[in-house]
Design a protein that fits this description.
Length: 365
């Protein structure tokens, strides 16, 4: 079955931005990542440091090398995907996962087939010849986005400071943990951005993550579940993918208790119903008083989206964005918008322009 996550998504948005002509478009280059474990990299090569700081080493190596290994062993052709045939299951004998840094007590299996299931939790996230290249490019945007909104005196920061930046990340990131792929996601871009902000500011800034994708960002929530410096707020389809997370009772744990807010909403809900949830989300973010705001933006909330929808139309995204950025306490908070899902390709450009119009106008009101 063809994957809905495709390059056409970005083409639709980029073409709309070019035709609109009111936004600066920047291309962020990156270089191939050496497979040598001890390879030296410069401080400017931010993404390599961030991924190594945040994602499990064995998992990154798997993403980078597994397709070549399967082709070499004659398991697939060069133009085919690596897909897991079975998955690890929590058990008392095998160790119950306690964190994303070491999800299971058992080490990765030696069997090449089993390794793919060890590093994934579903079958939507196959690994092709150029998957690693795309993953690195996407995460690079998330890291570099942080450099655009940090003070220009910061080492590694962009020469010109911006208040808001949109990172057109593809593949998306909010479903994967830092050790398991899933939901079209391989590297968690929100985690990468938060870590980059910390590295660039030399501290632990307070970051609010507002997840507006139709599907709950289980991976992002999991990483920050015990972290009081990161507030995670999500509005998503009730009882939808990824099915086992996103419940209202999930509020964080330990020092992070109260710093997770899930606002599930019935499938097909009107924008008026959505707006009520959004108002709750904005109040919590204002109360948190973040140093930075990060938005995981998915347009699979659109009324015609093939894998999940609310009754939200193109003009509603302007209102949505204005509601967030128009809050007086958030107008001057530096912000990163990360692209997540959204699969009605012919409408993605219009949806993005509508959202950006509301975001910009909200910041001026």
């Amino acid at each position: 079955m063809p994957a809905l996550e495709s390059p056409k998504r970005l083409e639709s948005i980029i073409n709309a931005l070019k035709e609109d002509g009111t936004h600066e478009l920047h291309i962020e280059p990156y270089s191939p990542w050496s497979s040598e474990e001890n390879a030296e990299h410069t401080e400017e090569d931010l993404i390599r440091w961030i991924l190594k700081d945040t994602h499990e080493a064995g998992y990154l190596k798997h993403l980078q090398t597994v397709h070549k290994r399967w082709v070499t062993d004659g398991l697939i052709n060069d133009d085919e995907h690596v897909l897991p045939e079975c998955f690890r299951v929590p058990s008392r004998a095998g160790g119950i996962p306690k964190s994303t840094e070491q999800p299971f007590a058992r080490p990765p299996p030696k069997d090449i087939y089993a390794q793919s299931g060890y590093y994934a939790f579903d079958m939507s996230t196959g690994i092709a010849k150029d998957t690693w290249t795309s993953v690195l490019a996407s995460a690079n945007l998330a890291a570099r986005a942080a450099s655009y909104i940090t003070p220009t005196t910061t080492q590694g920061a962009h020469p010109q400071a911006y208040k808001d930046v949109l990172a057109l990340c593809r593949p998306p990131g909010h479903h994967c943990t830092t050790a398991m792929a899933g939901g079209y996601c391989y590297a968690n871009n929100a985690v990468v951005s938060v870590s980059a902000l910390g590295r660039l500011t030399g501290g632990a800034p307070r970051v609010a993550v507002l997840d507006l994708d139709f599907h709950h960002g289980n991976g992002t929530q999991d990483v920050f579940y015990a972290d009081p410096r990161v507030l995670y707020v999500s509005i998503h389809g009730d009882a939808e993918y990824p099915y086992y997370t996103g419940f209202a009772g999930e509020r964080g744990e330990g020092p992070g208790l109260g710093f997770t807010l899930n606002l599930p909403l019935r499938v097909g809900a009107s924008f008026e119903e959505y707006a009520e949830k959004l108002a709750v989300a904005v109040r919590r973010i204002v109360e948190f008083a973040p140093d930075f705001l990060l938005v995981s933006l998915g347009f699979d909330t659109f009324r015609l989206d093939p894998i999940g929808k609310f009754d939200i139309d193109v003009p509603d995204y302007e209102t949505m964005a204005r509601t967030v950025k128009g809050a007086p306490q958030l107008k001057d908070v530096p912000s990163i918008i990360l692209l997540e899902g959204g699969y009605t390709v012919d409408k993605l450009g219009a949806c993005m322009l509508s959202f950006l119009k509301g975001w910009e106008n909200g910041g001026k009101e």
